[in-house]
Amino acid sequence: VLFILNGLERLNLDFRLAGTELCCDPSEPVPPSAIVVNLLRKYLLPEASIIVTTRPSAVRRIPGKYVGRYAEICGFSDTNLQKLYFQMRLSQPSCSGQDGVGSSSGEQENLVEMLSRNLERHNQITAACFLPSYCWLVCTTLHFLYFTKMVPPSQTLTGIYTSFLRLNFSGEVLDSTYPSNISMMKYVAKTVGKLAYEGVMSRKTCFSEDDLQQCFEVEMKTESELNLLEVFRSDVFRFFLSPCVQPGKEHTFVFTIPAMQEYLAALYVVLGEKKTLAQRVGKELSEVVGKVSEDVAVVVNIISKVLPLRFLPVLFNLLKIFPRYFSRLSGKDQDAIAHTMAEELFKEEDYYNDDVLDQINSSILGVEGPMRHPDEAPDDEVFELFPIFMGGILSRRNRAILEQLGCSIKNLAAFEIAKAMKKTVIRNSRKGLPPSELMDYLFFLHEFQNERFTAEAIRSLRTVNLSSVKMSPLKCSILASVMGTTSHEVEELNLSSCNLDTSSLRILFAVLLRCKTLHLQLNSLGSDACKEIRDLLLHDKCMVSNLRLTNNPVGEQGAQYLAEALAGNRSLTRLSLLHTALGDRGAEVLAQHLAKNQHLQELNLGYNSLTDTAALQVVEVAKKHATLDKVHLYFNDISEDGMRALDSLRMDRDGVRALVFLTAGTDVSDYWSNILNIVQKNLPFWDRERVRQHLSLILQDLESSRRQTANPWRKAKFLRVESEVKKMLGKLQQGT
């Protein structure tokens, strides 16, 4: 028989004969502790094998003569075991509760490979993954980042970290022999949390022994408190903090997992542990005075009925004022927590960093490219997860888990903090935020898990600019979930250059329906994505009036889907298909379906390799269209005859204007700046040689028209436009 006794530190065993009597009969009724002691003495069932697990501080509670062998379980000593663990863990799509449907084995292998490379060159994360539980945290975080496609996401990052702490510390007390029975997690929040918070505030991740002594308040502790601290340092300290392995910082400590510093700092603040000495003394004094005044007031009230001492109850009632006054002052703590959250969430120095989800991804998988030179100055430390964790810890689910860990956050306190946040967080969010910062704000609202608060915050967002944010499936799910708390119209949603694909459009479908202006340029959206866009435009609740698909490989098949959408759509007034590889066939398909549309006002088909036939066919349909009055056709392969035919169009006579060049007869076109602005914005993404040829032709056309006019005012306008074109050509030739 093998007995496994897990967690010896929870038992107070007495091996003295006077304390625990001998017992060798398994059927004899004795207390559980006596059974365990006699098993370990080998007096009861001497043939049985016994394995005991314990924290280091409790090892000596069993006399050495009863122990055959000591073994310390350290972690993965072989990096190949780490890699095998990651391969097994990441190949299970639902191991962390996520929906991994559709995640390819190739993507999983790529994640394992990137993680392995980072482990090889990043010594600090290698030290962290020495502990198997941190390997679990890394894999669960990767599942969250890469395989979340549900709306709303089934997990939060704060929830992952809170569950991780429950996994390791649920039911654990620091020292069972200590009368107060303080929970392990509560002690960690008060001590390590303070160190983490001081580090966040001073932008520091490395801590000296002096920093530890100061945060643990060693000089102010009693003997029993020092004993508790000793137990903590032997049992738990190395779990959260490990020696720094960077050259030149050998005698300092860092948090084993960097994000854990921000989590514990957030927990320290939300639990209300961030107090001055006066606040701590005031709280203890108010409790003492409150209890004493109640007891004394009862006694005095009884005596005063017999003796003429009616002034005494008045005196002792005055004592009650102090606790009430202090409780009113302590209510200001919630305002301070909300203020800290808003201040950290909207720090202007963090405005142009990557969003936090990309930062987490980089910290786990590393950054591809050349390694930093040892002499190169490191980047400033960034702590943008800190306020997000503060919001996440206040969610109902995380508060329930923390309650099990001995870290209680009352419902009323959470309500008061949320109420105070409306004055600070929502007000600050109304300022224009850069795209990465706006993504962080949306992520904060997702982590907070308060639907009413989120709805109030989102109603104030009429324009959402996430341009150049890498919109992974997780970020799309967060955007859809947060925006889904309301049904208000969105004036403008900018998702240009966001790495969107067909699945992203499916996740965001309900949000896209409510957008008036929709920017989807530079996303490599092909024909499959155009099929989703067709379904979007044909939906009876579609509000999209301005759609920009510039610089996407739409192609002929994509044009077919968009043409079907145009035929049945009633909201779209402007459509930009600039540089979308339509070709003549794609333009002809669009022209065939344009007649069925009754609302389009502007169509951009520039830079699509259109020839005379396709361009003139589009214009002929546009002439008969009820509302279409502007067609962009510049940078196409149109001959001089075709250009003359297009140039002869007149708005008052034909009902449509074709924008092909910067001239209009012997005058400059009213739309010259519009055309040049569009070209300027798209220069980095277009074929430079082809653009140079087109600009050269435009310059020749401008010079020819200038020579034909005698009007000095018009000549001046021509010279101004020519200088802009020459400037653009100069930049192209310089490669800038």
What does this structure look like?
This protein is elongated. With 736 residues, the protein is an alpha/beta fold. The chain contains 32 helices and 14 strands. Strands 5-6-7-8-9-10-11-12 form an eight-stranded parallel β-sheet, with helices on one face. Strands 1-2 form a two-stranded parallel sheet. 54% of the residues lie in helices and 7% in strands. Helix 1 links the parallel strand 1 and strand 2. Helix 14 runs parallel beside helix 18 (411-429). Mean pLDDT is 82; it is low at 95-103, 277-286, 325-330 and 369-378. Among the domains are: 2-66, no CATH class; 154-277 and 295-311 and 340-370 and 380-409, no CATH class; 670-734. GO terms for molecular function: ATP binding. Keywords: ATP-binding, Leucine-rich repeat, Nucleotide-binding, Repeat.
The total strand number stands at 14
Major sheet size, sense and barrel closure: 8 strands, parallel
Average pLDDT, all residues: 82
Cα-based radius of gyration, to the nearest Å: 35 Å
Low-confidence stretches: 95-103, 277-286, 325-330, 369-378
Please estimate the helix content: 40-55%
- Judging from the principal axes of the Cα atoms, what is the shape? elongated
Largest beta sheet: what is the strand line-up? Answer: 5-6-7-8-9-10-11-12
* Count, helices: 32
Strand content range: 5-15%
Structural class label: alpha/beta
End-to-end separation in angstroms reads 78 Å
GO molecular function, one term: ATP binding
Pfam families: LRR_6, NACHT, NLRX1_C
Keywords: ATP-binding, Leucine-rich repeat, Nucleotide-binding, Repeat
InterPro entries: Leu-rich_rpt, LRR_dom_sf, NACHT_NTPase, NLR, NLRX1_C
